[in-house]
Amino acid sequence: MPVTFPISIQTVKISSGPNKTVFYPKIIGMQNQRMEKSINRTIADQVLQLINQQAGNMPTTVEQMTGWYEVKNNQRQVLSVALSNYTYHHQAAHGMTYIKSLTFDLQTGGLCELKNLFKPGSNYVEKLSALIRLQITQRNIQLIHDFTMIGPNQDFYIADKVLVVYFQLYEITPYAFGFPMFPISVFDIQDIIDENGPLGRMAVND
Question: What count of other Cβ atoms lies within 10 Å of the Cβ of residue 98?
Fold first, then answer.
């Protein structure tokens, strides 16, 4: 089955000054207009949440804000996008970046949480946590505290046949490490994947 790109994406720009520009994706051309509007509303809401998280209720002035996005998956009726926002405040030691990803099942139009990718009642938290602990050891990743378990709604995105579970800056590693990303092959978790869900579609070899 060749890689297909079933939906078109347009870039939208928000700018409030020379050093404050945010780009984010907008879905266009879907046959199901209701689904298209719902997905675009969800994306726009998340972009605004990132902006508010960076600039709202802060005692210092925002001197720079840059927002961008990456399309991680756009095939097999699964859309996964990562939204990033870097903001630097006046006299801060350094800027701060947050990444929030959104994964949509285009068969239903629904926004997927991590639990939605797996069979009901599966031990996905324990299974993913064990694979991440193994990668932490193998990759010799420096932690700021012992890692035990991911959260049930841990940040993630889908990239072809890989589930990438990730953490925010400072969440488990020092700032200098960057974003700790843990790619997990769908074939390593095939026993707990919901076969009819987004990851199930990724795991099919054809």
Answer: 18
Per the listing, tokens 């996008």 go with 81
Q: What is the dihedral angle through the alpha carbons of 14, 179, 151, 143, rounded to the nearest 10 degrees?
A: -150
- What is the token pair recorded at 113? 């949480």
* Residue 98 near residue 52, CB atoms below 8 Å: no
| Sole residue written with tokens 């099919």 | 204
Distance CA 124, CA 23 (A): 33
In b/e form, how buried is each residue of 176-197, taking b as 16+ CB within 10 angstroms?
Answer: eeebbebebebeebeebbbeeb
Q: What is the pTM of this model?
A: 0.93
Structure tokens, 176? 């200098």
Model pLDDT for residues 135-177, shown as the tens digit of each residue: 999 999 999 999 999 999 999 999 999 999 999 999 999 998 9
Alpha helices in 108-147 (DSSP H): 124-138
> Residue 112: CB partners within 8 Å, gap ≥ 6?
103, 104, 105, 197, 198
Which parts of the chain sit beneath pLDDT 70? 1-5, 206
**Type of residue found at 158:** I
